[in-house]
Amino acid sequence: MKPVVYTIRINGISKSFGRIQALDSVTFDVPPRSIFGLLGPNGAGKTTLFSVVANFLKANAGSVEVLGIDTRRISQLRGRLSIFPQDAAFQRNVPILNQLVFFRLLGGRTHQEAKEEVMQTLELVGLESVAKRRVGTLSHGMIKRLGIAQAFLGRPEVILLDEPTAGLDPASAHQTRDLIKKLQERGTVMVSSHNLAEIQELCDHVAILDLGKLVFAGSVEAITRADCEYDLELSRPLQNDEVKRLSSLTGLRDIRSMAVVTANGSVGSASYLVTLDVSHDQDAIVAELLRNVLDMGITPRKFTQSRSLEKHFLEVTRGPDSR
Amino acid sequence: MSLRDVSASHIRLISFYQTRYTVRGGAGLVFLMITLVFGLTVAHAVLTPIEQIMAQQAKAGQQSDPQKVVAEIVKLGRPVIQWALGIESDENSPASSDAWTTFLLDDRPALLSVIFLILLFGMPLLISFLAFNQIAGDVQNRGLRYLLLRTERANIFIGRFLGTAFFSTLVIAIIIATITFYLGVNIKIYSAGLLVGWALHGFLALSVLMLPYIAICSWISASVDSPFVSLVLAKLIIGGVWLFALLGSLVWKPAIYLNYALPWGLQNHLLHPQLTHSLGTALACLGYMLVFLFLGYYRFETRDL
User: Fold this and answer.
1) Which of A261, B54, B157, B276 has the maximum number of C-beta atoms within 10 A of its C-beta?
2) Nearest to A50 by CA among A89, A23, A90
3) Domain coordinates of chain B in residue numbers?
4) Average pLDDT over all residues of chain A
């Protein structure tokens, strides 16, 4: 038997709603134990693709395999695949504890086991204190966290999260991202989001959809490394001669001033966009650059990979004007 | 999906959950209220004239004989019952053509028989208030998506049907028990054994009759995305078939057979004097139910949710 080198295989999936082609021959693989980002502008087909993977929607063509099982035989994936669907509603008049316990009872747990498991999961998302409240009394953010909690129930091996942090306050969004990172230890997560910084932070692989077509699939590192752009924040602005000195470093292609922060009339920190040469060892150039900056008596306050995923996204999706 | 994937424990859980939260949900309460009002109004309309005549006789100082009063009223109502049963009254040999009416009005507690006939007509029109939203609402708000990775579509469909059927049976039991108890206590003309036995028969007849109508609501509810559309369609189809058959038959007699598209054409036979005939009708109702359930399940299994 061939070893499975993917957790999810999406093979030529097409789906139309009447005359609208929501997905058009989409094909890509999701590697095992990865956090996989699904990106795309509004209406690109992300939610439709999630729904096809979960077998909510029947594809017009193509197939989806999860853990080596065709999702048309979804019963064989019970307990191994879970989803946080976008816009799905819980029953408003039923206490959340009862709803989640019901889900675990369907998973074969006893009532006591189900209740304990649900309380632990609610604790993870900070909802244990409202377990006995009805869904209708919860805020939008709480309902969102409840949806995430139900996806985490039962330790599934593959979790699909459709815009899990949209509409959450910063603290909850941060908590959710931490949870997603922890999930990678035991399985594969496929997550969609409009927040490209979040995807860049979380994901090791991405696929980008546009108007139902796959326009990119690959590792995040491949995108960011290819661009070789970094944001550098320094404690003070560089003088002209300092810029010249840094620009002369081998492998550093360009250093461009982006912003200077002033406070109470005096000059404060300054931001630069640093572009490295692709053909050189980037880690060595970065080390040399920072060493030079420190030699100049300047403190580097931040050095991060630039938001090149966003740049790449805008390039491959033709931007908002195409819509 | 195969039959192997259907899980009895999942169906039990889903039907229990459906029954439990139907009571709390709007549809369950509306059905409970409407059905109780309807059932008790029917009982009131049938029993009040008798109680009033008896009260008037008592006021006038006459010895009131409830049996006699009931017999008089039954005599007056006999042609209506014959019409309801679809029996052409044969003036030459009334005895032979009237065996069914005689069974209902003379051999069995007549007042209960009349109430059952009205309930058999009215309950199919009311059942959609309970059964219209088995699936459609959860498709509309996508709530079903939380269940679809946890159990088979078949389990959801069958479980919700059974939960709805159980709730309907419960409500029917409450109505019939209330009416029978009132009849036994207030109008003491029937023996307890006869009354309870016939009440049980009526309860079973109504419960079995509801199954095909709930099944057709399941089919409709699994086919559309809006609970409101589901309710309107259920009302139009269930009521429309009967109405078209009735009005159509005034113009073209065979139109009456349209009633057999649903159990309308045979449901009164659940109260037939011959037990085998009643059982045959019950089996036919179950047949209708299976057909509607299969169509509904097929639609539910193959559609986008």
Assistant:
1) B157
2) A23
3) 3-302
4) 87
Angstroms from A94 CA to nearest CA on chain B:
8
CB contact under 8 A, B150 and A107: yes
Alpha-carbon distances, residue B247 vs B240, B242, B255 (angstroms): 10, 9, 8
| Of A179, A216, A175, the residue nearest A309 (C-alpha) | A216
CB A204 within 8 A of CB A218: no
State the pLDDT at residue B53: 84
Is B150 part of the contact surface with chain A (CB cutoff 8 Å)? Answer: yes
CB atoms within 10 A of CB B96: 8
A263 band by pLDDT with thresholds 50, 70 and 90: low
Distance CA A11, CA A4 (A): 15
Per-residue pLDDT tens for A243-257? Answer: 999 999 988 888 988
Strands A81-84 and A158-162: parallel
Cβ <8 Å between A105 and B13: yes
CA B178 to chain centre: 16
Tokens representing residue A250 in the block? 């081998």
Determine, for residues B10 and A77 on separate chains, whether the beta-carbon distance falls below 8 Å: no
The Cα A315–Cα A38 span in angstroms is 16
Q: Which two tokens stand for residue B290?
A: 């299976």
CB contact under 8 A, A150 and B145: no
Cβ(A260)–Cβ(A233) below 8 Å: no
CB contact under 8 A, A106 and B148: no
Q: Is B151 on the interface with A (CB under 8 A)?
A: yes
Judged by a CB distance cut-off of 8 A, whether residue A158 touches chain B is no
Phi first, then psi: give them for residue A91, nearest 5 degrees.
Answer: -75, 125
Percent of chain A with pLDDT over 70: 94
How is residue A246 written in tokens? 């840094």
Q: Which residues of A touch B141 (CB under 8 A)?
A: 88-89
Q: What tokens appear for B235 in the block? A: 């009302």
A293 closest CA partner among A254, A263, A251, A249: A249
Q: ∠ CA B15-B19-B24 to the nearest 5 degrees? A: 145
Tell whether A110 lies on the interface with B, counting CB pairs under 8 A: no
* Number of other CB atoms surrounding residue B125 within 10 Å: 15
CB contact under 8 A, A89 and B148: no
What is the reported pTM? 0.84
Cβ A304 vs Cβ A231: under 8 Å: yes
Q: Note whether B146 contacts A: Cβ–Cβ < 8 A.
A: yes
Which 8-state DSSP code applies to residue A93? T
Contact B145 A107 (CB under 8 A): no
**Nearest-angstrom CA–CA distance, A46 and A60:** 16
Spatial CA neighbour of A188 closest among A173, A167, A203: A203
Q: Evaluate whether ipTM surpasses 0.90.
A: no
Instruction: Kindly identify which residue of chain A lies nearest to residue B9, measuring between CA atoms.
Output: A106
Q: What is the mean pLDDT of each run of 10 residues along chain B (305 residues)?
A: 76 90 76 92 88 82 78 84 75 62 89 93 94 91 89 93 94 94 85 93 97 97 94 96 94 93 94 93 97 96 91
In this complex, do A85 and B152 lie within 8 Å of one another by their Cβ atoms?
A: no
What's the confidence (pLDDT) of residue A175? Answer: 84
